[in-house]
Specification:
Layout lengths: L6 E7 L9 E6 L2 E6 L9 E7 L25 E4 L2 E5 L4 H4 L9 E5 L4 E6 L10 E6 L8 E8 L7 H5 L6 E9 L5 E9 L13 H12 L3 E9 L8 E10 L8 E9 L7 H7 L1 H6 L8 H5 L4 H4 L7 H6 L2 E6 L1 H13 L1
Antiparallel strand pairs: 1-4, 2-3, 5-6, 6-7, 7-8, 8-9, 9-10, 10-11, 11-12, 13-14, 13-16, 14-15
């Protein structure tokens, strides 16, 4: 039995010039309609309306269509690319038993208008072959459109001194690269090697004490990390986007729980939808939701997880990987998340 839906839920944002109680025009599924903004909302905030599936008459106002406040508790693995949401598909027994995909495992995230497919090119060479990102349009017989690959950095990607005199090298070092369909590097993750930067790493043995103080005395149980994404020039320090992590401390004695990863273009930098899909491969791989599909190329010693830099909580190591951190209380974290949802 399939329940028929009479309405489509549409999320609307209050325009900057509008205020509560005003009637604004909007559109959904090719139909224009009018709706009244709830009285308590301010510019930049969102509200949800129910639009009849048969479509409203053009220009007519929808009466009593604003959805009342509700409770939502999301636990499913999903990706947002712009305003499009993609859910991870569950593989059937047929998919798991398909021997043609044993050497090239894949993960598929399905959306309303297209799907994102992430494929490893060869499990026989887990550390050498890249992860390929592609977009699949709906329709039988259509092939995925490749948007690029995520690859670990090679010797030819580094500065000469870093390869031949690594003990005396200071400067940038590429860690991972996002490569376009033409074979050229589009974006990269890199570290910055400084002289004697790891002399204070031994202080990491005091980390449990610092965590206990945070947990018991300061109540800063959340940590926000920002990791820089650079362009195609190793020696250019221009930042195009940031990977932003939000971690929550459950207990001082166990690793933090990662509650969100997002990629945010820097102000003034425009990144195309295809490039956003390409960049999404990084958080997808490190999220833990693709471990079963990509067990060999990800988890094996020397695999991709060891090559991809992520926050570790040790200030000296994170700083070398161009990762900045900030500890937040639960109230500060909530205010930050609400501000991100509003604007």
């Amino acid at each position: 039995f399939k329940m028929a839906s009479k309405y489509t839920r549409v999320s609307l944002r209050v325009p900057g010039w509008a205020k509560g109680g005003m009637i604004i025009e909007a559109s959904a599924a090719g139909k224009k309609f009018k709706v009244q903004i709830p009285e308590h909302l301010h510019p930049g905030q969102y509200f949800t309306v129910r639009v009849p599936t048969d479509g409203p008459q053009d220009g007519k106002e929808l009466k009593h269509s604003v959805v009342s406040p509700e409770v939502t508790f999301n636990l499913e693995p999903n990706i947002f690319v712009g305003n499009d949401k993609f859910f991870k598909e569950i593989k059937s027994c047929k998919d798991w038993c398909d021997l043609s995909t044993c050497c090239c495992p894949y993960v598929k995230f399905s959306g309303k208008d297209k799907s994102i497919v992430l494929t490893h090119k060869c499990c026989c060479l887990p550390c050498c072959c890249p992860f390929e990102a592609s977009a699949l349009e709906p329709g039988l017989g259509k092939k995925p459109k490749v948007v690029g690959t995520l690859q670990p950095a090679g010797c030819f990607d580094q500065n000469c001194t870093a390869v031949f005199c690594p003990c005396f090298y200071t400067g940038p070092k590429m860690q991972a690269k996002f490569v376009g369909t033409d074979g050229d590097i589009k974006y990269m993750l890199k570290s910055h090697i400084k002289c004697c930067q790891y002399l204070c790493v031994f202080l990491a043995v005091c980390s449990p004490c610092f965590r206990c103080v945070r947990f018991c005395c300061t109540d800063t149980q959340y940590t926000k990390y920002e990791q820089n994404i650079y362009g195609n020039d190793l020696n250019d320090e221009t930042v195009y986007a940031k990977v932003i992590y939000t971690d929550r401390m459950i207990c001082p004695c166990i690793p933090d729980e990662r509650v969100q990863i997002r990629i945010e273009p820097l102000e003034g930098k425009k990144i195309s939808e295809e490039d956003l899909i390409l960049l999404s491969t990084f958080p997808t791989l490190i999220s833990g939701y693709t471990t079963y599909e990509f067990a060999l190329p990800l988890i094996l010693p020397g695999g991709y997880l060891s090559a991809l830099p992520t926050p570790c909580g040790i200030a000296q190591v994170d700083d070398a990987n161009n990762i900045q951190s900030e500890h937040l209380t639960i109230q500060e974290s909530l205010q930050t998340r609400q501000a991100e949802d509003m604007f």
